[in-house]
Amino acid sequence: MIVNTLHIGIFGRRNTGKSTLINWLTGQEVSLVSSMPGTTTDPVKKSLEIPGIGAVVLIDTAGIDDLGELGSQRIRRSQEVISKVDCALLLIAGNQFGEYEVQLIAQFKELNVPYLILHNKNDIDKIATITETVIRHHSSAEIIDMHTGDDTYREVVLEALKRIIPDTKQGNNSLIGDLVKPGEVVLMITPIDSEAPEGRLILPQNQAIRDALDHDCITVVLKETELKNFMDKGIKPALAITDSQLFGEVAQLLPEEIPLTSFSILFARQKGDFASFLRGTPHISKLKEGDHVLLLESCTHHSSCDDIGRVKIPRLLQAFTGHVLHFTVVSGLSSLPADIRKYALVIQCGGCMVTRRQLINRLRPFIVAGIPVTNYGMTLAYMNGIFERATAMLSTNEEKG
Q: For a disulfide at 350, which of 163, 202, 232, 267, Cβ 3.0-4.6 Å?
C-alpha cells in the first residue's frame, strides 16, 4: 500500500457513467458497467499511475440518488468516501443538476476537497447554457463537457486534474528533510520486541530510513540495548528518533543538546494537525476521574498483550493521572462514535497507513467541537516529562514553514 497516494473519488447520480469513467481513465475494466441503474453498490478502488500526477487511487461510488433502504446505505457509504479523498470528480449527464449535486458540492466545500464537474455523454446531450448558469450559482469549479467515447477528452480531464491536485499536496512531504542537512548523522532507535513484525521493521521505521537516505544523511539504526555503546564512540547525531515507548530510557542516555523525537511524532507533524496536537497534549494533566478517552488506530492489526494503543497507553494514562478512565478504541477508518462530545481527549496513532487528508478529516469533528486531540508519541513524551524536548525542533520548523 502506498500511503501517500492521491485518492480521487468519482461521485454522481446513478447511470451518469461513473463506472465507465473509471474504466476509461484506467484503460482497464475495473468497475462493472451496465445500463441498469444502481449497478455499483459499494465503493470500488483502483490503483494506477497517471503521467504527470503519479500514483493515484480512483474510487467509484454508488449513485447519490439510489432508492430504498439499501440505497440509503449505499449513499451513506459514498458520502463517507468524501472525507477520505484528496480530490473529486462530480459526474453529471443529460443536463441534470439539482439538489443531489448541490449537497455533494456543499460536502466538498465543508471538507475542503477540490473537485471538477464533468458533464458526461455530450455526444447525446451537450451541456446547456442554462445548466452552466445554474451550476455557477453553487460552484466555481471547472466544468468539462465530454464523453468517454472520445479518448481526446481523457487528456483534457487529466490536465484539469493536474491543476487542482497541487492544492491537495501535503504541507511537508518529508519526515525529516527540513530538520537535518546532507551528511549529518540521523540516529534511529528501533526496539525488536513482541510487537515487531517477524523479519522486518514497521512501516514508520521503514519510511523514516528511506526519507533520511533520500536526503543524503548518514543513517544509523540500532536497538536500544546498543545505544550506550554507540554514544561512547563520540559520534554526535544531528537528530535522534526513537520508538515512543522508549522515550524515558533514551532521554536519559542522550545528552540534552541532541534533538530527540519519535517516529510517531514525526508522522503527527507530516500528516496531522500538528498545532492542534501541540495544544491538546497538555490536557492529559486535566483528565478527571471517570473521563472518557478515545483511541484512534488508523489500521487494523492483531492486538497483543503489549499493544501500545489498547494496553500500554491506557495503563500509563491511569497511572499518570491517578484516575480511573474509560477507553474506547476505533480501528481502521471505521465510523466514529455517534456521541463524540462525551470524550475528554482523543489520542490518534501515528497514521502511517493513511493519507494526510484522511487523518485531517478524521480529527476535524473533534477539533471543531473543541475536544483536545493528541497522538501516541506526543502522549508518551508528555508522560515521560520530555514533551517540550520531543517537539522543540519540529515546532520551530513548523513556525518557519
A: 267
Side by side, which strands form the sheet with 185-189?
218-222, 185-189, 239-242, 260-262
**Angle (deg, nearest 10), helices 263-271 and 203-214:** 70
- Contact yes or no for 10/59 (Cβ under 8 A): yes
Report the greatest alpha carbon distance in the chain: 76
Average pLDDT of the segment spanning 99-128: 94
φ/ψ of 260, rounded to 5, equals -130, 135
Provide the pLDDT for residue 397: 61
The closest of 147, 188, 151, 159 to 50, measured between CA atoms, is 159
* Residues in Cβ contact with 17 at an 8 Å cutoff, skipping those fewer than 6 apart: 91, 93, 120, 121, 148
295 vs 330: CA distance, rounded Å: 6
Q: Which of 116, 102, 128, 111 is nearest to 156 (CA)?
A: 116
Query: What SS3 state is found at 262?
Result: strand
Quick check: 14 and 91 in contact, CB under 8 A? no
Q: What pairing do the DSSP bridges indicate for beta strands 260-262 and 373-375? A: unpaired
Cell representation of residue 307: 499493544
Would you state the pLDDT for residue 174? 84
157's grid cell: 480531464
Tell me phi and psi for residue 246, to 5 degrees.
-100, 10
Domains of the chain, each with CATH number or no CATH: 6-168 (3.40.50.300), 185-266 (3.40.50.11420), 273-383 (3.40.50.11410)
